Amino acid sequence: MHLRTMKYIKTLTILLSVIFIIAYSLNNQIFKILKYRKPTTQTFRNFPLRKMAASKKPFYFVEIKTNLKNLDTLKIDYFGEGLIPFSEYFDKGKLLAFIVIRNDSIIYQKYKDTFREHTVSNTFSIGKTMLSILLGKAIDDGFIKDINQKVIEFIPELKNKPNFNSLTIKNLLEMKSGLQFTRTGNGVFSDLFSDEAKFYYSDDLKRDLQNVKADTTNGTKWHYSNIDVLFLTWVIERASKKHVSDYFEESIWQQIGAQYEGSWGVDKEGGLENSPSSFQCTAIDLAKIGRLFMMNGKRDSVAILSTRWINESLTVSPSNKHNTSKGWQKSTHQNYWWIPQDNAKEGDFSAEGLRGQRLYVNPKTNTIIVQLADDGYGGFPYRKISHYFF
């Protein structure tokens, strides 16, 4: 190698090392962003967690020893590439797990390499849906009167800040807070200073939330934002006087019969849950959340979540209908669920997370589908698959 080239590489290495040291000393968040960039389904293991114990009364789906049908050859639409076999969809999306459950029986399951039923994985934005469920439970339990309550009733520290005196729980649930929030995906430099990365890697969420600024009048404009979910997390913590993960564990996780341990990422020991982006569980236990909604909030004859909240969550309100039009199914965001606008005949709905995490429920076919993935962005094949097994 040329001497000048070697000197250049050495100088560059030293310079990058100095940048990393300065970044770490001045801002631990920037250091984390540089180190981890876009998180994977296993990045959560590098940060503080608050765990949820497996249920003392686990629920077990019936497991059929052989898959009911061979799904590999079924042709499905893949995100602008036309029809491809499911086997190719599985590989392209770097799927880790794909489970189909009908009538409480596992009729199809496929795992990647060493990934198995007991493997815990980050579900990313499905954590938003879990928080929405917990909000409904907090209302059921009387900790919160209704979604029209003002946020400052629970977080008085926010009084006299622009936009906060009129901010309601409903604004947060509809993602219409009007608060500034920038997302990642526009390059390394942009990601370094994006709100999405800042809050994902924050070591003090409550501190950072108190520095958020207003952008538009609350209640007027939908903007997909993790900040709204974090404020709602704080509200539920204050209302229930419990950590969100502890409250979820006792009121939902234990009740649905989770077989395995789950967890929530937190900013620090004793801190706030990173609920928009760090909810970890196994695929089979995620399916039990779908079952809870399929069974109208009950396990056997015991009510876990009110039917009223389930109906509110799955019925698209007129003010939300045109928030977004995601995919061919034109999904709308409602209470942190995704509801296809053409689902009058199906009644189907889904929870969705970064990199292709999916929980799909179809009451018409009595089907629950769970997909965990490392890069599964393509398509919405779940409705077709649910009918394939019907």
Q: What is the element layout, followed by pairings?
A:
Elements: H1 3-26, H2 28-36, E1 49-52, E2 62-63, E3 75-77, E4 83-85, H3 86-92, E5 95-102, E6 105-111, E7 121-122, H4 126-140, H5 169-173, H6 188-192, H7 195-200, H8 205-209, H9 226-240, H10 244-256, E8 262-265, E9 279-281, H11 283-294, E10 298-299, E11 302-303, H12 307-314, E12 331-334, E13 337-340, E14 349-353, E15 357-362, E16 367-373, H13 382-388
Parallel strand pairs: 2-6
Antiparallel strand pairs: 1-8, 3-4, 5-6, 5-16, 7-9, 8-9, 10-11, 12-13, 14-15, 15-16
Helix pairs in contact: 1-2, 4-9, 4-10
Explain what this protein looks like in three dimensions.
This protein is an alpha+beta fold. The chain has two domains: 3-36; 44-388, DD-peptidase/beta-lactamase superfamily (Beta-lactamase, 3-Layer(aba) Sandwich), CATH 3.40.710.10. It has 13 helices and 16 strands. The strands form five sheets. A six-stranded mixed beta sheet has the order 2-6-5-16-15-14, sandwiched between helices. It has a four-stranded antiparallel beta sheet with strand order 1-8-9-7. The protein has a two-stranded antiparallel ribbon with strand order 3-4. Strand 5 (95-102) and strand 6 form a beta hairpin. Helix 1 packs across helix 2 (28-36), helix 4 packs parallel to helix 9 (226-240) and helix 4 (126-140) crosses helix 10. The longest helix is centred in the N-terminal third of the chain and has 24 residues, at 3-26. The chain is globular and about 55 Å long. GO terms for molecular function: beta-lactamase activity. InterPro entries: Beta-lactam-related, Beta-lactam/transpept-like, Diverse_Enzym_Activities. This is Beta-lactamase. Residues 96-378 form the Beta-lactamase-related domain.
